[in-house]
Amino acid sequence: MILRSFRHAAWPVLLMMVCQVAAAMQVDSPSPPFDASQAAAGRLVYARACGVCHGTSLQGGAAVALSGSAFARTWGDGRHQAADFFAEIARQMPKNAPGTLSQSDNLALTAFILGSNGYPAGLAPLTSAALTGTLPMPPQAQAATAPAAPAGPPVSFPQPPPTVLPASGNAPQDAQLLRVADADWLTFNRTLAGDRYSPLAQINTGNAQRLQVKCIAQLGEMGSFETSPIVLDGQMFVTTAHKVLALDAATCAVRWSYVYVPVDPEHLPGNRGVALYDGRVFRGTTDGHLIALDAASGKLLWDARVADGGLGYEITGAPIAFDGKVFTGDAGADTGIRGRIYAFDARSGTLVWAFNIVPREGDAAAATWSGKTDKAGGATWSSMAIDPERHLLFVPTGNPAPDFNDANRGGDNLYTDSVVALDLASGKLSWYVQQVPHDMHDWDTAAAPALFTHDGRSVMAVASKNGLLYQYDRDTHETLSQTPFTTRSNVDALPTEAGVHVCPGALGQYNGAAYSPLSGRLFVATADRCNVLTRAEPHYVPGGVYFGGMFRTDPPALQSGWIKAFDAISGHEVWSVHRKDPLLAAVTPTAGGLLLTGDMGGSFLALDARDGRVLYEFSTGGPVAAGISVYAVAGREYIAVPSGSSSRDAASATAAATLIVFSVQ
């Protein structure tokens, strides 16, 4: 996955220590000089190139905040170099067009951001030669700094919750997850198997044209909105980057809401949803925590610090829970993390086991890497699937790091860009398949696989960002087929200093395949867009982008999308529908013969699953990049569509998170 911003650790006690030290450094490490006129010019550049994502007042939105405590935690810690801050702006911004601003514009932007954080203006404009030394604590933050606590031993991860409270309920239990009621949607992909199929048929090919909006919930946050609504007994749970909300699934009325305030630096504000289990709602956070809330009230039950947000770790994927445990994994491969998969006790939040996606010393997979693996990537971004009969957890994994420069990572780089099957109880590896050995294109296996049985054969379907749909036999582990589902060109070309044009690009497949037992078909929706990839010397800054190059996405006029159907075993393409806008949303087949999805142009679509014919289309007002859930309340079927995702993947970053619920008369 492609990320954007640098971060550094700020656990509350350590933050106070750092603030005090930084304040003491103010005399020895003054802020870079700039003048008021340069900062004023930077304000105009910011409004034109940055404000739509970072907020008109640097308060954050589709991208992280660039002022206040967020800036202080990230940059003003007395340890980050001023030159690194400038380089982040100059090399990685603006969104989807990095490196396109002039040197003078980038210097003016730097001056504006520094001035907005209370750094004093001087008499001369900022120059690149003046970007020396570290950035001290912003003056505005110094005023709020508390006395520092004595230094303690190095922090180890994960950290168990300091307090644990009991839940007021106990649903759902394993039995409910093993046999999901037709009316419910209990995991990111509805069932443990992750096929996204709904057995409801009240809304069908005969009446889909009569769909109407029944209720709307404005969730009050801008940014990435990629949740898949969870529904149990008429109560719905959705997430934004920082919120969890419980809604009446028939009326959209808010029953409770919880706002998570990061205590560590954030890297990429985003979240794909919750796990619901044993009366608890679990979600990951943008600063690397896993939290448990009471499903009935939203009260915080425990907070486990899984990894160091200051080093770029986060948890964006929707956890999955079963067998007394909740499973999650690190995200942040493009900041040089060292990815792992975790199982935590669902009631206490204590670590049960961890599996290394990127090897540690002594791991067998270390033989597939050259050089060090301490910053080698290997994230998990979305959700996971579970085979309860085989007692296995199936986890998709992301790219190695640096993304576009392999000078220090020869070999296949296991277990990146793979699906690993782990024992639920111990976390030990059972088997794996790697979709992209030695990835040089950022072609993560970003989405959970779909597990299903077809004609007596146990199958796993995997849609990779490399544009191929893979089908594997889960008994023999053989590859049954691999079929292109989007444009693939120049796929063997490697990034160069001059740049190479490759399809698919580094921004690609974020949701996986869905399976319909009604038709025996697999369905995939995709974003058809290419990149120019360049290679450069990697420069590591803790929590910073660690690409070893950069990418440039084709202009919107050259981007589009596909919705395709395939035979479940042979992979033969049955039909395809081309859309003018990319599709990042998941696809949802139903027993009513429908296929539900949405595109980045804002359209919610209900298609005839037999031939791809569009039966109903509704303009939601914002990009649809999430999972569409189908459920029933009091015998009536509903369709929940999350709209308004605004991030680097959206043509516009001005939409707000909105949930729209549909039904028929």
Characterize the structure shown:
By secondary structure, this protein is mostly beta strands. About 10% of the residues lie in helices and about 30% in strands. The protein is built from eight helices and 35 strands. It has a four-stranded antiparallel sheet with strand order 1-35-34-33, with no helix packed on it. The protein has a four-stranded antiparallel sheet with strand order 2-3-4-5, with no helix packed on it. Strand 23 (about 515) and strand 24 form a beta hairpin. The longest helix is centred in the N-terminal third of the chain and has 14 residues, at about 35-50. The radius of gyration is 24 Å and the shape is globular. The chain starts with 11 loop residues before the first helix and ends with a strand. The model is unreliable at about 1-30 and about 145-150 (pLDDT under 50).
